[in-house]
Amino acid sequence: MGSAIWAVAELADGAPTRLSLELATLARTLAEAMGAEATTVLVAPGAAAAAPALAQHGPGVLAVDTAASEGLAVAAVVSARVATLAAERGPAWILCGASPDGKDVAGQLAALLDWPVLVNGAAVRWQDGAPLVEMSIFGGRLVTESRPTASPAIIVVRPGAIAAEEAPEPGPIEAVEVAPGRELPAVRIVERVAEAAAAASIEEARIIVAGGRGVGGPEGFAVIEDLADALGGAVGATRAVVDAGWISYSQQIGQTGKIVKPALYVACGISGAIQHKVGMQTSGTIVAINRDPDAPIVEFADLVVIGDLFEIAPRLAAAVRARKA
Question: Is the pTM of this model over 0.70?
Fold first, then answer.
């Protein structure tokens, strides 16, 4: 078994997801620390066309173009081909993203390759000859550090574990054809339920304005949306307001929602309970607008404004628009 480290990438609308770019960056930095090679593996329709964007982040790219798998679960198509490549080329470590498809791919790879898995990695670094994986447990109340006892192994990494950064020079691209060494039982998608998504994706947003119970009700989100529009950002929310039906689940941030890492996170009327903190604590700058000076979010926010969000947020939006004019 070799010492290379692989990252398994995904596409959305024909382009690599931000999580995939983060994994490529992480694979490169770990490979530099361990003195080995990093490779990003992309299995998807249009893989060759999307490969240059991944290569900009440093690792070489193995691009496996596949036919559109309408009606079939994506993970089965990807995992069968990645497993074949891994058996042929022998990487020591495989990184998968903690997206819905990425988790499925990791589970199927573990079964196909008979490799162990470490899941829910919030940070990964190279230490003492192996990846050291930081994981939060008990709703983020404790942080543990674990490492695989031996290689090869699979590590599932959460979004925001590392910032995606381009490398000084792009990695090489190799287009390969791979037939799955083992056909998995076909898992067919028999029904799709479409939900109206947020106007802007919170996973990809550089700026997020999020609302909690303090917005008072669904009509209160008009203020949040206006501030997000002024800042050019996306709207997020806590689980409590999603459960109350004030806003859609696609905008939920936290332990049971999305993990985000924007450059700016504006928390309006959010107490900052640990379940929400888990989803946004790696944001670049955290600004909290809250009436309660003793709210938990005050302890970890970079800037706290104590006051009524319905007075402060509109003034802030107006000030931002005035500066743009």
Answer: yes
